[in-house]
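User: For this week's homework, look closely at the record that follows, marking any run of repeated tokens, and judge whether sequence predicts the tokens.
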Amino acid sequence: MNKLKSLLGIALLTSSALAPIATQARVILDIDVGPPPPRVVEVPAPRPHQVWVPGYYVWDGHHHQHVWHDGYWVKERPGYHYRADHWEQQGDKWHRVQGGWEQG
């Protein structure tokens, strides 16, 4: 029983140590299909110390289609503004630019 507990403890420590690395992985994908026009969505009333991140399309490679991801609230970061997720056309390909915080 003690050996099992030790192995479980090591597994938990190892997985928690690797978690930050796994969450930072990014996949860059250029596709031939442009996104549909953005959905018109009513932005909710402002919330104190929160920033509304608008919805956006993500590419579902399994089903070969764009899928809408609804907007959501995030905690504000003083001195930063949120750059919305968007798609850019580069030649005959489309590239998704992930949203995120920018200083200024």
